[in-house]
Amino acid sequence: MDIKLVTGKTLTISEGESLLHALKRHGIYLVSSCGGKGICGKCRVRLVEGNARIESSGTLQPSEIDAGIVLACQTFPEKDILIDIPEESKLVVGEKIALSRSGELIELLKSYNVEIQPIVKHITLNLPPPTIDNNISDLERLKRALLEEKDIIGIRFPNEFVSSISKILRDAEWNIALRYADGHDAISISPADMDMDKYGIAIDIGTTTVVVYLVNLKDGQLIDVGSTYNSQIRYGDDVITRIIYVTESKGLGELRDSIVSDINNLLVPIVESHNINREDIESAVIAGNTTMSHIFWGINPASIREEPYIPAVTFFPRWKAETAKIEINTKSLIYTVPCVASYVGGDIVAGVLASKMHRKSEVALFMDIGTNGEIVIGNNEWLVAAACSAGPCFEGSGIRHGMRATEGAIESIKIDPKTFEPVCKVIGDGEPLGVCGSGMIDAISEMFLTGIIDRKGKFVRSTRTGRIRDGTDGPEFLIYKKDGREIVLTEVDIENILRAKAAIYAAVSLLIKEVGFNLEAIERVYIAGGFGNYLDIDKAIILGMLPELPKNKFTILGNASITGAYLCLLSKDLRREAGVIASKMTYIELSVSRGFMDEYMSALFLPHTHLRLFPKVKQLILRSKNLGK
Amino acid sequence: MDIKLVTGKTLTISEGESLLHALKRHGIYLVSSCGGKGICGKCRVRLVEGNARIESSGTLQPSEIDAGIVLACQTFPEKDILIDIPEESKLVVGEKIALSRSGELIELLKSYNVEIQPIVKHITLNLPPPTIDNNISDLERLKRALLEEKDIIGIRFPNEFVSSISKILRDAEWNIALRYADGHDAISISPADMDMDKYGIAIDIGTTTVVVYLVNLKDGQLIDVGSTYNSQIRYGDDVITRIIYVTESKGLGELRDSIVSDINNLLVPIVESHNINREDIESAVIAGNTTMSHIFWGINPASIREEPYIPAVTFFPRWKAETAKIEINTKSLIYTVPCVASYVGGDIVAGVLASKMHRKSEVALFMDIGTNGEIVIGNNEWLVAAACSAGPCFEGSGIRHGMRATEGAIESIKIDPKTFEPVCKVIGDGEPLGVCGSGMIDAISEMFLTGIIDRKGKFVRSTRTGRIRDGTDGPEFLIYKKDGREIVLTEVDIENILRAKAAIYAAVSLLIKEVGFNLEAIERVYIAGGFGNYLDIDKAIILGMLPELPKNKFTILGNASITGAYLCLLSKDLRREAGVIASKMTYIELSVSRGFMDEYMSALFLPHTHLRLFPKVKQLILRSKNLGK
User: Fold this and answer.
1) Which of A313, A315, A336 should we substitute to test contact with B (largest number of B Cβ atoms within 10 Å)?
2) How far is the alpha carbon of A586 from chain B, nearest alpha carbon, in Å?
3) What distance in Å separates the CA atoms of residue A264 and residue A278, rounded to the nearest whole number?
4) Could A314 and B589 be called an inter-chain contact, meaning their C-beta atoms sit closer than 8 Å?
5) Could you tell me which CATH number the domain at B120-191 has?
6) Per-block average pLDDT, block size 10, for chain B (629 residues)?
């Protein structure tokens, strides 16, 4: 039987084979956090023509089922079918990103003026073959050569390593290449004349999104990128609900398994499509917030949530891939970017490293806007950090038609102030599938400037447009409609977004106060976060998420956490530098500060209760209201 | 239903329960290398009265079956039965030995003038509890206290350790006891007020016999002893046949599993009967020959057998119990007494350590007589070693009625030169069950002196006794007969023993020559080996196994390998000393020496071809021949 794709491609499928399985066989990988059990509801495809046996529809809505949506893992075609795979169901859109980012990353690495020194080192040794008179054991012979030829002492030899040496030494005729780790663990030996490839992976474990970079450790080339939702989402939207799940439902194992299988699922297509031997992936770096890092390593994060908010560990030892159950060389070492405190993790340390603010004398503000908002202020002498909970809305979660900033996402919107008709720009320039964080910010600021919503984010029902209507969740604005597909932004969505931006703004202003500064003293603002590449700074200021500062002071970093992880994967000096950043950074717990709630309440308005803080936005409002009339 | 023992005890048994299982439930452990599969044939008991369903008789001989012998694992009683358990079927005769040896071992340890310092150390720490202002992570807090309070730095923290700390630190209210290893691995933490027991095990892995000592690490007390046959025997009698099994039948895993389950089987009854928590057994030492040490750790010993005879490893890293699959605290470390070369292993290094010859200026000869014979000559300045293959006969294997030196073994024999009637001394003073090594040596030298056998070890058929008769293997001498039970020594047995003694004598004399000495220069001879405690030096000289030297030069050490392992378990200094012994010892490969075969052939006679080497034995022969007439 055949599967036809609306794009024109035709693939074979066997009787009794699931659609998910058949697609995978042909190199098309769908998101499948539950591993094909019909639970996660992520492997959606649209059945355009033909019949199939459908074992379960999982949590699909009746409207979706009516529209022909099926779960690929539960669908067994009975004759030829025609399907359409939505972009959000595809696991990897990475190679294109990788190709476009690779040069930029290599340039960045060069700009630090450090050597490429991965976690695992390679050396070659030429041992004297044994004789009756020179009859020391194989391991002693190796140790002696390490000491005498390379001045290396104190390497630890695991049992499996020693079990392998006798045969390899003889097969290699005593000319061998040794892989060993910075921290002095022997990883493997092989004949010296085999030119070993070496790869590493950098992983950003966000509360909502997981990103994996596959990197060639010889030259720093970014080979491929994979990203997906963190499937822990089903247990809670933010770190607090996940910690509660761990403590009250004993769910540490489940959460750990979720993130580990997300990562392994991302690795499969990347590794297969580039024909890479998993054994040659010999190191990994993870950057995640403190809770994510704990869960990844199976360490109970309970005390993070209990006053005085102490994590079990901030500087993680280098443990092996087999401990993490990440499917690369089992003996390879995983470096965890060190965390600062319970609510400022390795993702922020990695981000600061990628921003270089810690190397410069100018006072800078670093903002990482994800499910948590973390703010760092400082320079090459001092660094102070704080955190707030923003929620996952900017990553598309909890918003009716929200999605991550991947192909098909509306990344910017312009609304005509007279006709109220929106014009959308879509990532990849195809048909829109949803709205990503930057699109939401655009939409709200445009709706505000055109008077569609008021300063509280409520719809002005007198606006002369048919696009404001009552939906199942209350009032909503119709952004897009074509062939029965609609994209809306609801008043509930807007409330969510306002709460998120208020938390971020409150944290920034309180932190600046706490360190005795004012806004004018900030010489630079770095914006990090998954949506960051598409972010319109002006619109974010109108929203009141970012403080009103001259636009040229802002630098958009994108996902700075994965960039920092990439840097740590390649350079020993930068791993050390990450350690210095984490040690140096002082964490301030804002939740115990009385001022926080006041700041937050004031920031819930558009752009803010106190318009004097946003003088230019104020002018803009005045002008656009005139225009709107 | 009931099982009655001939000793008077009564135990319950359920329908469908095997005899082996029921006995175990009541604390009576039988040898069961195959784990109750009816294969190893070791769990023999005699059914005196009553009926039972017998599933298999395994390799039992028809005569044994006629005598009521059954395999306990294959026997399911159907009504009350009366049974007799032969001593050789009982797994442990250890506690008595332990009680009698404990004081002697503690005295020996004291005589070295070293502190008790096991592999795992215990320290207590009182950490400052965290506050909002003092909010470093739990692990950093622990590391800081280690450095500031105890000056300890560089400990490695495994993932499981870090996973456990947060809860324990809080439960313990920040007063904790830390177990960590010499080599800087954190093992576990617990509340400081729990007085932790600490135990260790010393293991001697012989080619034929395995011995386990359970030791209290606080005071060095020997709590219990277990010993059994090394069940690798089923794959071959000596190290060479076992290496062949590994290389030709890919049997490394099987051999490894055999020895590991032997050790674990010995541990079960010991640990249970003393109510010891396995978690509190926190270190182990193994001493074995080089092949046994390799197999124990799953390292292929193939190159040991190939010229130039190079082992994979002689100084084994300290790996964990979980790697070895020994059922003690999984994180505890196992120290392997270092080996010298392919045919001189950790058992010899341990033995030399126990002999103290390496601390004295007198030139001594150390002989370990087991399945391999190893000879060391030297003093506190130099040590030279050689090895030969003796075969397992002195440990009871390959001899018709041979057995280990445990209860029921004939340990000495006196034969009346006129009547040729033997008088036997039995270990434990009960009925004899077989002959152990020392009994064989006695028997042959007595038979020789009384003219029952000639200098070639052949029976003199003209001897006026009915005890020489023709058996299934040819001529044999009836040592014991009662109630249908017979114990004989056959001409084939004698040949085996002569070959073993000849190999040992040849190795001794060749080694002495190689180092440029002669017999007279030897100031002391240490005899080690499982049978050693019962060995009659005079008889061993008459046999021609030991060189003829004044009796007061001989010191019998017994199983010196397990004694050395015990010493290493308790003292860091003695572990270091073992390393020095292994480094210092020079190994000479006798098999490449042309003289060996000549020496061996000459030594096949009783006591030797050249009677001038045994002047006193020569006189004795002349005198006893006169007496015999």
Assistant:
1) A313
2) 10
3) 11
4) no
5) 3.10.20.880
6) 87 90 78 69 88 89 90 92 85 61 92 96 95 92 95 92 95 95 85 86 94 95 89 87 93 96 91 89 97 98 93 96 96 96 97 98 95 94 94 86 84 94 88 91 95 96 94 94 91 96 95 94 93 81 96 93 98 98 94 85 95 94 68
A313 vs B138: CA distance, rounded Å: 6
Question: Per the CB < 8 Å rule, is B166 touching A303?
Answer: yes
Q: Which of B138, B308, B313 faces A162 most closely, judged by CB atoms?
A: B313
In CATH, what number does A2-89 get? 3.10.20.30
In chain A, residues with a C-beta closer than 8 Å to the C-beta of B153 are none
The pairing of beta strand A524-528 with beta strand A554-558: parallel
For residue B130, list chain A residues with Cβ-Cβ distance below 8 A: 308, 310
Please tell me if the domain spanning B120-191 has the same topology as the one spanning B347-392+497-617: no
Fold designation for B347-392+497-617: Nucleotidyltransferase; domain 5 (3.30.420)
User: In the numeric block, which tokens belong to residue B136?
Assistant: 């470093």
Instruction: Provide the token pair at A449.
Output: 């400037």
For residue B392, is the peptide bond before it cis, meaning its omega torsion is within 30 degrees of 0?
A: no
Q: Which of B132, B309, B317 faces A156 most closely, judged by CB atoms?
A: B317
Of the partner residues A162, A308, A323, the one whose CB lies closest to the CB of residue B299? A162
Min CA distance, A497 vs chain B (Å)? 31
Q: Which residues from A are below 8 Å from B342, CB to CB? A: 135
Which residues in chain A touch residue B303, judged by CB atoms under 8 angstroms apart? 138, 166, 170
ipTM value greater than 0.90: no
The pTM of the full predicted model, rounded to 2 decimals, is 0.81
Are the beta carbons of B45 and B22 closer than 8 angstroms? no
Distance CA A112, CA B540 (A): 78
Work out the burial of residue A111: count CB atoms within 10 Å of its CB; fewer than 13 is exposed, 13-18 middle, 19 or more buried. Answer: exposed
Strand order from edge to edge, sheet including A175-181: A120-126, A175-181, A186-191
The ranges assigned to domains in chain A are: 2-89, 120-191, 347-392+497-617, 397-494
